UniProtKB/TrEMBL annotation:
<dbReference type="InterPro" id="IPR011059">
    <property type="entry name" value="Metal-dep_hydrolase_composite"/>
</dbReference>
<feature type="binding site">
    <location>
        <position position="308"/>
    </location>
    <ligand>
        <name>substrate</name>
    </ligand>
</feature>
<comment type="pathway">
    <text>Pyrimidine metabolism; UMP biosynthesis via de novo pathway; (S)-dihydroorotate from bicarbonate: step 3/3.</text>
</comment>
<feature type="binding site">
    <location>
        <position position="90"/>
    </location>
    <ligand>
        <name>substrate</name>
    </ligand>
</feature>
<keyword id="KW-0479">Metal-binding</keyword>
<feature type="active site">
    <location>
        <position position="304"/>
    </location>
</feature>
<keyword id="KW-0665">Pyrimidine biosynthesis</keyword>
<dbReference type="InterPro" id="IPR024403">
    <property type="entry name" value="DHOase_cat"/>
</dbReference>
<dbReference type="InterPro" id="IPR002195">
    <property type="entry name" value="Dihydroorotase_CS"/>
</dbReference>
<feature type="binding site">
    <location>
        <position position="177"/>
    </location>
    <ligand>
        <name>Zn(2+) 2</name>
    </ligand>
</feature>
<dbReference type="GO" id="GO:0005737">
    <property type="term" value="C:cytoplasm"/>
</dbReference>
<feature type="binding site">
    <location>
        <position position="231"/>
    </location>
    <ligand>
        <name>Zn(2+) 2</name>
    </ligand>
</feature>
<dbReference type="InterPro" id="IPR032466">
    <property type="entry name" value="Metal_Hydrolase"/>
</dbReference>
<feature type="domain" description="Dihydroorotase catalytic">
    <location>
        <begin position="47"/>
        <end position="235"/>
    </location>
</feature>
<feature type="binding site">
    <location>
        <position position="304"/>
    </location>
    <ligand>
        <name>Zn(2+) 1</name>
    </ligand>
</feature>
<comment type="function">
    <text>Catalyzes the reversible cyclization of carbamoyl aspartate to dihydroorotate.</text>
</comment>
<dbReference type="GO" id="GO:0044205">
    <property type="term" value="P:'de novo' UMP biosynthetic process"/>
</dbReference>
Amino acid sequence: MSTLLITGADLAGSGAQDLLVEDGVITRVGSIGSAGGAEVLEADGLVALPGLVDLHTHLREPGREDAETIASGSAAAAVGGFTAVLAMANTNPVTDTAEAAERVLDLGRAAGLVDVQPVGAVTKGLAGEELAELGLMHRSRARVKVFSDDGKCVHDARVMRRALEYVRAFRGVVSQHAQDPHLAGSSACCHEGELSGRLGLPGWPGIAEETIVARDVMLARHTGSRVHVAHVSTAGSVEVVRWAKAQGIDVTAEVTPHHLVLTTDLLAGYDPTFKVNPPLRPQEDVDALRAALADGTIDAVATDHAPHARHDKEHAFVDAAFGMLGLETALSVVSDTMVRTGLLDWAGVARVMSSNPARIAGLEGHGRPLTVGSPANLTLVDPDARVTVDRSASLSLSRNNPWHGRSLQGAVEATVLRGTVTARKGALA
Ligand code: DOR
Ligand code: ZN
C-alpha cells in the first residue's frame, strides 16, 4: 500500500489539517501527526485545493508535435497544478471519431501526469457541416461528453440545433467558440475598435461573439439541452449568460486567465504573442469578466493553452497564429487577479478551477471536496509566493507566453494525482 501524509495544509481556506492518502484515496482528515512509513509532504502555510481541471487545452498531438505533445502538455499541466485537462479536438487529424478519441485518451494515460480527457469535434473535420460521430465517441472507451469545434464556431444554427439535440440523450454538452464568421471578416485578428483602426488591423467586433451566445442560449432552451460558452470575452456576452441563467436555461461559461487581465492596448507594439482568438478586449470588458467570475455568472476559468511553434508565431501580426500558453501560469494569474484583490477567496478558486469545470465536463474523480473517500487529486498553493514568469523555464515545447517577465502573487507548490506527487516547485516530481 502506498501512503502519503500531507501535513498542515489549509483546506481551501477553511483551516489547517493533515491529510492521509492511502492507495490514492483520502482516508483521514484532521490532526494526524505522523504515519509510519508514509511519504510526507509538509504543507504548513500552503492552501490545498482539489486538483485543478482545465476545460480547454490544445495539446497539438496528433499533427503538430513540434508545438506540443500530449506528454509535454501533460507535464506543463501538472506543473501548473492540474490533475485533468480536456484536450481540444482541433488536431490533425481532428478528433472526430471514436478511434481518434481513444488514441488521445491512451496517449494521456501513457504520459501518466494528468487525466487527459478528449473533447470530440461537433462536425466532421471541423467543417461545420455534417455532425461527427458524437454517439460513437460517447460510447467509446474515451466516454466523450464534451463536444467542440473550438478554433471555429458552429455557425450554422441548424447544425448547432442538431448537435444539442443529439448530446441531450447522454447529458453531453456542446462547448461553443462563439464567433459569427459573417460579422467578422476572415482576416480579423484583433478587437474591432478605435485602436484597431489606428493600427490598421482588421478587427472582430464584440457583437460577433454576443449574437452567437444569444442564439445558442435560445437553442439550448428550445432543445432542453446544455450549452457551454468557451472563452467569454465581452461584457455583452456576460449580460446574455446572466439573463439566460436567470431564465433557468442550462448554460455554463468559462473565461481565460488572459481575458481577465490583458487588454487590447498591448497590441500597440504589434507583438504577435498577444494575438489570440477571441481577441484581447478593452478594460471595460475585463472588468465585467472579473465581476462575472466573482458572482458566479461565469462558472469556470479555462486556459485555452494554445502552444505554437516559433515559425508559426513569429510573423507580422496579421500572419501569425492565434493563441498563447496558459497551463503553467493559470493559477498564479487567478491568484494575483482574483484573490489578492479580494474578488474571490480560495474556496472560490476551488469552485472555478476545479469543482465547476469537473462538473461541466462530467469528470467524476475530479473536483471533489478534500474529504474522506475522495480520490486524492489535489493542488498545493503558496498564496504568498511571488513568481516572475520566465518563458524559457516552461515544460511546454512552445514559447508563446504572454506573461513573460510579469510578477504574480501565488504559486503552485505541488500537484498530487490519485496520491502520487506529479510536480513540485515548477518541475516534475
Ligand atoms: O487563440 C486561439 N488559439 N483560439 C482558438 O480558438 C484556437 C486556438 C488554437 O488552436 O491555437
Ligand atoms: Zn476557441
